[in-house]
């Protein structure tokens, strides 16, 4: 009888735990203006880290979502339709608690979410950026409407002041809100432009709670990759088939200086820098250095081969080894050379000494690289 009572108490306790875990910790009550019925979707990571896609019926312009999140969470909200319409989708920042969402059907980007302090902070940052974007509207529109990738890249290059202003807006936000989930979210988009020490500084200021989230762990992993591809680290070995179908391994060049040139056929700055890179190669190739071109053209090898031939690049060339299927699943291939070196922007050049240590990392083939090569030889 005592055992039975204990078992009943135990099961009652477990049931209470299950009920407590199942009880929603957030609700979103919404109004879809201009569309009395239909289906809307909210997509986010649940408390267990599992991707949750939940639908809600719109009745008389009203809908509601509820669920469980472990902490503040970025979510995608959209109207369920085929084909997907960008005007009918937006990003929201959910928080535990009660929230109210108002969405004009003609433009989801104008949605307002109350009850989420994170959303309020993000909206403030977005307003600043919209002001910057308005200054460059004509140039941005011409880039978006340009079907030719190389011409669009040239326009993008002329928009450097715009991108710099946008970056600075983010950096000011990071400094003013070091432990905001928005800082965590936006920091992921600056792995290619922020110096490694700046990234480390912002990551350290996030605090333990944000660092333990999936996003925090992702940033920590990116910083590790960047350090692996920065001066002071041993160069990661890689093997790949070169442009002529012959095997190439970095380990084959032990005892020599090696310059890794991360580029792509569609990268305008990369192509513009090739004449100078060829001059450096001609100057130093007989003094104990090898160049290896690593192209981000896995999806278009024909364009890669055409660019190598057109620019008459005399060193050996390989593709980076990106696996798009793995990338879509949030994973990377161990054959992806760019991942090994934390490459997020092109061009990037990495100089390795005869002992296999990285001694230089450069955004272009400019003065810094020239000085290092002159010093090394």
From TrEMBL:
<keyword id="KW-1015">Disulfide bond</keyword>
<keyword id="KW-0676">Redox-active center</keyword>
<dbReference type="InterPro" id="IPR013766">
    <property type="entry name" value="Thioredoxin_domain"/>
</dbReference>
<feature type="signal peptide">
    <location>
        <begin position="1"/>
        <end position="20"/>
    </location>
</feature>
<keyword id="KW-0732">Signal</keyword>
<protein>
    <submittedName>
        <fullName>TlpA disulfide reductase family protein</fullName>
    </submittedName>
</protein>
<dbReference type="Pfam" id="PF14289">
    <property type="entry name" value="DUF4369"/>
</dbReference>
<dbReference type="Pfam" id="PF00578">
    <property type="entry name" value="AhpC-TSA"/>
</dbReference>
<keyword id="KW-0201">Cytochrome c-type biogenesis</keyword>
<dbReference type="InterPro" id="IPR050553">
    <property type="entry name" value="Thioredoxin_ResA/DsbE_sf"/>
</dbReference>
<dbReference type="InterPro" id="IPR036249">
    <property type="entry name" value="Thioredoxin-like_sf"/>
</dbReference>
<dbReference type="InterPro" id="IPR025380">
    <property type="entry name" value="DUF4369"/>
</dbReference>
<dbReference type="InterPro" id="IPR017937">
    <property type="entry name" value="Thioredoxin_CS"/>
</dbReference>
<dbReference type="InterPro" id="IPR000866">
    <property type="entry name" value="AhpC/TSA"/>
</dbReference>
<feature type="domain" description="Thioredoxin">
    <location>
        <begin position="229"/>
        <end position="377"/>
    </location>
</feature>
């Amino acid at each position: 009888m005592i055992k039975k009572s204990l078992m009943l108490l135990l099961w009652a306790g477990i049931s209470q735990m299950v009920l407590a875990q199942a009880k929603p910790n957030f609700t979103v009550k919404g109004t879809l203006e201009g569309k009395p019925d239909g289906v809307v979707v909210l997509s986010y990571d649940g408390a267990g880290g599992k991707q949750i896609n939940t639908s809600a019926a719109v009745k008389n312009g009203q809908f509601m979502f509820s669920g469980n999140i472990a902490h503040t969470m970025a979510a995608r909200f959209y109207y369920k339709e085929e084909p997907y319409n960008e005007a009918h989708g937006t990003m929201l920042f959910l928080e535990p608690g009660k929230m109210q969402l108002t969405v004009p059907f003609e433009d989801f980007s104008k949605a307002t979410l109350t009850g989420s302090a994170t959303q309020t902070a993000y909206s403030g940052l977005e307003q600043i950026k919209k002001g910057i974007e308005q200054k460059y509207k004509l140039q941005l529109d011409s880039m978006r409407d340009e079907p030719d990738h190389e011409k669009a890249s040239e326009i993008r290059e002329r928009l450097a002041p715009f991108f710099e202003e946008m970056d600075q807006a983010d950096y000011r936000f990071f400094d003013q809100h070091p432990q905001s989930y928005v800082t965590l979210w936006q920091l992921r988009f600056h792995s290619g432009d922020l110096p490694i020490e700046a990234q480390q500084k912002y990551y350290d200021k996030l605090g333990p709670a944000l660092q333990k989230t999936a996003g925090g762990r992702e940033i920590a992993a990116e910083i590790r990759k960047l350090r692996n591809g920065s001066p002071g680290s041993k160069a990661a070995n890689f093997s790949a088939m070169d442009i002529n179908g012959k095997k190439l391994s970095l380990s084959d060049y032990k005892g020599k200086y090696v310059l890794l040139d991360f580029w792509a056929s569609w990268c305008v700055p990369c192509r513009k820098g090739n004449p100078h890179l060829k001059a450096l190669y001609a100057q130093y190739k007989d003094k104990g250095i090898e160049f290896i071109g690593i192209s981000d053209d896995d999806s278009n090898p024909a364009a890669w081969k055409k660019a190598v031939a057109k620019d008459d690049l005399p060193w050996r060339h390989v593709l980076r080894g990106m696996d798009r299927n793995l990338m879509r699943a949030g994973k990377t291939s161990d054959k992806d050379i760019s991942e090994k070196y934390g490459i997020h922007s092109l061009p990037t050049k990495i100089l390795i000494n005869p002992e296999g240590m990285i001694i230089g990392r450069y955004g272009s083939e400019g003065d810094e690289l020239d000085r290092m090569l002159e010093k090394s030889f």
